[in-house]
Design goal:
Belongs to the class-I pyridine nucleotide-disulfide oxidoreductase family. GO terms for molecular function: flavin adenine dinucleotide binding; glutathione-disulfide reductase (NADPH) activity; NADP binding. The chain has helices at about 15-25, 40-45, 50-70, 80-105, 160, 180-190, 210-225, 315-330, 355-365, 375-380, 410-425, 430; strands at about 5-10, 30-35, 110, 115-120, 125, 130-140, 145, 155-160, 170-175, 195-200, 225-230, 235-240, 245-250, 250-255, 260, 265, 300, 340-345, 350-355, 365-375, 390-395, 400-405. The chain has three domains: about 5-145 and about 265-330, FAD/NAD(P)-binding domain; about 155-265, FAD/NAD(P)-binding domain; about 350-445, FAD/NAD-linked reductase, C-terminal dimerisation domain (Enolase-like, domain 1). It has twelve helices and 22 strands. The protein is globular, with a radius of gyration of 24 Å. The structure holds NADPH dihydro-nicotinamide-adenine-dinucleotide phosphate (NDP).
Length: about 450
Amino acid sequence: MADYDYDLFVIGAGSGGTRASRVAAAHGARVAVAEEYRVGGTCVIRGCVPKKLLVYGAHFAEDLKDARRFGWQVPSDCEFSWQTLRDNVLAEVDRLNGAYKKTLESHNVEIIDQRATVTGPHSVRLADGTEKTADKILIAVGAHPAVPSCPGHEHGITSNEAFHLDSIPKRVLIAGAGYIANEFAGVFHQFGAHVTLINRSKDILRGYDLTIRDRLLQISMMKGIEFRFDATFEGIEKQADGSLRVSMSNHAPIEVDLVMFATGRMPNTHGLGLEKAGVELDDHGAVKVDEDNRSTCPSIFAVGDVTNRVQLTPVAIREGQAFADTVFGNKPTRVDYDCIPAAVFSHPPMAGVGMTEAQAKQMLGSVRVYTSDFRPMKNVLAGREERALYKMVCDGDTGRVVGLHMIGPDVPEILQAAAIAVKAGLTKAQFDATVALHPTMSEELVLMR
Ligand code: NDP
């Protein structure tokens, strides 16, 4: 190892790269991490964290309205300043960026603020031309928003730019109907924009349980968000007044002030030099890895979104940790991908863990489904019609809970705890044996019929 500049050279200081760097360093490795943009990666800088803060900000639109029913005198001309929220969120991002850097520094990880590309199994080249060598290289460069190559696509933005807007546009069109589309639809709508989502297929949030996503669709439409399905993007034309005319298949063109693409994310492998080291990519450009995150080049590993396994921050962190413990900590560890809970921070949010009803029927044959469809008491007093829906999918033979799917206020907070029980393989009877905590929404989990 001593012949190399470092024991480990990490490319990308996002969630996976940062965890791997500091854990490997804690195990005694000499580590450098190269980052071309900002330490923290997508999640901290332009993803989960600032998005969640916007979701909190957006929720006040409804909370302030509801507050009147709870006796608060909220003036009807109550104003919202996007610039204030945006700047506060960006300042928080700066703070976190600083905290991430400090953590790396305190673990003696050398931070290199440059792009690095691979030149061989043990070597990288920095943007300034410097060559560095390492016994192991970890690719943790993440992914970027995919933008369809239609005419005028350059007039659209992605979630990257959404955090920096000068103002909230009056009319927003979002292409896609997945996580980012539904989360930002809620945010823009609560800030007063008219939002239209267009999607190539007939579905929103494919992969989530059908009943739950149908409920989101129904509530979103009730709030005034428009949906257009079976619509393939054909082009964007910028008009003299600055507005954008969007054409799509099967529907009339639509005029908006902002187009945002939320049509999936592609691994950041282009131009990274991986072919020089014999690192194979899959059809989407993702680094092919084995269960130990090792690529087809024995000294090069990859974790996180660049491997396109599960594009979620906590998974990237686990992969980074498992890599560092296995390779530098003499503690072989593999990530368990079973029963990963996930949430969509839409308005209201959705969350799910385990098999959907359809998956369970296909895999188990005998399935029992329990639901609770209720109006949370806060919504009742607020005069808000939105109903929450919880669904429990059980193995029909054993009663084991194999899936939990929810939509309603705070469900991501509730699901995290319930996911432990699903992961542990508990049965419906064991849920029912737990006394309800009254009055809460989560008590529905132990009262389902
Ligand atoms: P998603 O995969 O969630 O959704 C992509 C959407 O774009 C789908 O509606 C899909 O349609 C559509 N689409 C895909 N490709 C094309 C194309 N070529 N042309 C037109 N439409 C297309 O991606 P997102 O961009 O929303 O998010 C990326 C990933 O980031 C997510 O998968 C998730 O892993 C992660 N993420 C997680 C969050 C969370 O945990 N809360 C929040 C945000 C992102 P179709 O109906 O055909 O599938």
